[in-house]
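Attaching the record inline, Q. Sequence:
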Amino acid sequence: MIRVLLADDQSLVRAGFRALLDAQVDIEVVAEAADGEEAVRAIRELRPDVVLMDIRMPLLDGLAATRRITGDPGLHDVRVVMLTTFELDEYVFEAIRSGASGFLVKDTEPEELLRAVRAVVDGDALLSPGVTRRLIAEFAARSKEPAAAGEMARLTEREREVMALVGIGLSNEEIARRLVVSPLTAKTHVSRTMVKLGARDRAQLVVLAYESGLVRPGWLG
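Structure, as predicted:
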């Protein structure tokens, strides 16, 4: 059972998400929160698998709340999906850099929301379909904390190649086909790369690929 916590200051939004999620046999909404402070307290108490977190909330916004969650070693397995009203939200990239596993616009299709919850539990990065790699690269270019060259030097040539393919949005299966290896081998390379770079999940690996210059805007592999 996938345990989900909803954090949004609009009760109607929470009610809509709860109705959809609770109707699934493999998903359970364990709590709701109307602000960031309440969300962090509930997350520390309940340790849900996934948090659907609104970026703009009172007392403590979703970005600050996400930093608290991802900065707590005891909450390492909690995955945060940011919710935003607009796809071009200026905080989207920083949210991912802060440890969020991805983001969705609030008016996303129900099927996409369900896929999102299941995907992040499986360790996949999640980007709303309307958000392009060019947008992520644009935010990455504004980053004040580029990846250190020393960190990239830890990677083997194959790991750098795999990281670049992750950066352009390929799944493990697609990477496997591109490199003519098994999906398990591709997954192993991705996992080792994440460990070496200290990436919390696949989403942060995508960001690091852009920050390091390994992937550039418009590069399609």
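Residues 64 and 187 are 31 Å apart (CA to CA). The beta strands are 2-7, 27-33, 50-54, 79-84, 102-105, 126-127.

More tomorrow.
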